[in-house]
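Cont'd.
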Amino acid sequence: MTGATEERRGALPSGVSRSQDLRKKLREESYLAGAGLSTAIFLALKLGRPLFLEGEAGVGKTEVAKVLSRMLETPLIRLQCYEGIDVYQAVYEWDYPRQLLHIRTAEAFGADADRKRFEDELYTRRFLVSRPLLQALEHEGPMPPVLLIDEVDRADDEFEAFLLEILSDFAITVPELGTIEAARPPIAIITSNRTREVHDALKRRCLYFYIDHPDLEREVEIVRLRVPGADERLARQVAEAVQRLREMDLYKPPGVAETLDWTEALVALGAKELDERLIEATLGSVVKYREDQQRALGAALSLLSGGGGA
Amino acid sequence: MLEAAVAFGRLLCRAGLAAGTDRVVEFARALEELDVTRREDMYWAGRVTLCSRPEDLEPYDRAFEAFWEGRERARPLRQPKMRLEVSVEDSVQPPKKSVEKDPAGEEAVRLRYSPVDVLRAKDFALYTAEEFAELHKLLADLSFSGALRRSRRLEPAPRGRHDPRRTLRGALRTGGEPLRHRFRKARRRPRRVVFLCDISGSMSSYSRVLLRLLHAGVVSGEPVEAFVMGTRLTRVTRELASRDPDRAFGEAAGTVRDWSGGTRLGDTIKEFVDRWGQRGMARGAVVVILSDGWDRGDVAVLAEQMRRIKRLAHRVIWVNPLKAAPGYQPLAKGMAAALPYVDVFLSGHNFESLEELAVTVAGAVGDRQGGAG
């Protein structure tokens, strides 16, 4: 409850004043964050800074945004980046068919004298279609929305430079309209798989966190939390097997997302315990390269607990 | 507290992190929001504000220990790595202005003896100091622009997809009647070029020139990535990105621990595919491997990794300086194992062959040869 007027940035869920509280809160939303990640999220919320998350695929980067949106009861606005994405797909686009109709209408009414006015009207807010970034800035509500800019490393440099402008001022200039500024800057989460190095200037405006694979105990806990149908024993066996798979030098080591998929597959098959036959039948949900599967199957026995170290 | 934050930031800068003033201010602000008496809060506040890539984490941890826990200088923060000696003969300096001032001195004579044409065909291993300098100028003119690919970005074109934006703009001028329809089509952009340069002992007469080549590629402004392969893989794109080659080499040498050590080609290429290639860097790219193909490791590993690269990349080019030797046979086991997965096999022992490489990279030659367009 500070009266500071410049503090239009940031938003914390009620009852959270320390990063430890936030950690508990995240847990209630079925997201297990370590001390580091919860501090990073806490600071992002508190200081109103974009949070830049990096890490292997499937470690739960995107999930952070989803959880925050649930926790703050605010919409999640997602911008999936891809190569060639530009302003018209990310920010705004004029509604051309409607603009043309508008001109026609003007003509039909023979409003020659008012032609200038009709033309001016063409470039007003009501003919503007907002795309995710503009939506996030224009959102109205008690809480700012969560803006997820997913896989920013897939977009090209031109787009990065553009993001830079938005993330520092939380304002967008539409040449025909003027500047649109966010009443409250969105909570921005940016993720990257590191397929290419994102420019330093962009990172500099963000808080940075690298999400690692969880350790065994935390992974067991995550499985238990997210797949309630799984037995404690099964959850532990799966987590152990995945940890060994990660040590196995695969082309694509499984992430937490794969662990959960795998557990769900096993639960769907009614498994209570992991055995070699089940591993063979369900391996496709954790390991997705043929070479990796062969390697994993070759070591299937050692994936089972008690089967010796990897 | 602010002073401590600033001092800590300085220490991190010295450890190679980009902890500028803005970051340090951010760090100080973060500290205000947290419990400074808790070591953990302190640690994470710094980590999320002052680090910006995974490579920063280790130096950060060490600096944190040293600074906040008084375990100062238990270990030097970053051991000075093996230095690349930029010897006089290898210097980049143009062959001195004194050459011109020198009234018909012997240096000028010597330069006349190495006219550019001769230089272009001469094996790098036989170069003299002046010739190296000359070569550098030639390299700067080479352009390594990858073969073109369709981008998803659109640009105005006489034919193609309808462009309502420009059509409407035009319609305003003709009383709202879209008389002329405008179109746009996918822009074509050069593919990424990834250089993997072997710097092991057996390549030593060439690796310096080839590194210069990498440097010229990286500063050209085209999408180029550069790695060096020794006993392990090191990405040097960042280090080579500065325009000053001497500094770039100094920095690259700082990162490369294994200057002219042994090669385990298969393993280092695997490291590349695992960490970078498969995630996207090699996808649809032109991958250029500069190596003599001597592999001290298991060649089966190399074959498997080459197969992976082949599946990811648009084109795989292997440059082997030994190929120029008369009667060359790919006898090095690694070379033989890799060849089936190579689209174009070039020599790269002299400047002419590097020009050929540039053309191949641009796809002009390869497209006709391979027909794999």
